[in-house]
Amino acid sequence: MEEKINAKAVKDFFDQRAENWDKEVHHQPAKIRHLLSFLDLPPSARVLDVGSGTGVLVPYLKEKLTGEGTIIELDPSSSMIEIARRKWGEEGIEYFEAEIEEFSYDKKFNCIICYSSFPHFKDKKRAVQNMFNLLTEGGLVAVLHSEGRDRINQHHQTQMVGFDHLPPIASLALLFQEVGFTPIHQEDSEDYYLLIGKKVVDFSD
């Protein structure tokens, strides 16, 4: 599960590509809506978008939150964050330049989404543990990709982020359980990779 992720190299990789990212990387709206359809979010939800990049998820999250909720865009790349801010403004959105492993916030989240970002986390177990801590009881965490695992890993092998691998879904589900999440939906196919976990706190002890 552990991989030799160089956080600075990953940040530099995305900083250098941020300006042209939206021209070079395309996401199918139907696939994004399909992935988000598994998340039952109230209109007033507080959502953390981890590895948010240029804000790919923002318009789709706004569809689900209908203007009442709050979206937190989190990315270690200052260039990506700046472009997202220019694109989407400040209304109902906050922006932070930080790694998920170290991120803290003064309120709990209803949902945390890692869309096309999980392979790049430098310490995946620590990231999942911190996401658990950042969620409210009953909150959801979602690792989402609109391509299959094999294709994603093959693509990363050709880039400067060759160590940034997406683990087998069973391995990630096990990590979720070790941290305290209850996996409630998973898929590892040619077209999608998704794992959704729920924070269920046991007070029986």
Q: Can you walk me through this structure?
A:
It is a single chain. The protein is an alpha/beta fold. It has a single domain, classed as Vaccinia Virus protein VP39 (Rossmann fold, 3-Layer(aba) Sandwich). It is 36% helix and 24% strand. It has 8 helices and 7 strands. Strands 3-2-1-4-5-7-6 form a 7-stranded mixed sheet. Strand 1, helix 4 and strand 2 (70-75) form a beta-alpha-beta unit. The protein is globular, with a radius of gyration of 16 Å. The mean pLDDT is 87.
Task: Give, in order, the helices and strands.
Answer: HHHEHEHEEHEHHEE
Briefly, what CATH class?
A: Alpha Beta
Indicate the overall shape: globular
CATH evolutionary superfamily: Vaccinia Virus protein VP39
Give Rg in angstroms: 16 Å
* Number of continuous helical runs: 8
> What is the CATH architecture assignment?
3-Layer(aba) Sandwich
- The largest sheet has its strands arranged as 3-2-1-4-5-7-6
Structural class: alpha/beta
Helix content: 25-40%
Uncertain runs are none
| Total beta strands | 7
User: What is the total number of structural domains?
Assistant: 1
Q: Largest beta sheet, briefly?
A: 7 strands, mixed
| Topology-level CATH name | Rossmann fold
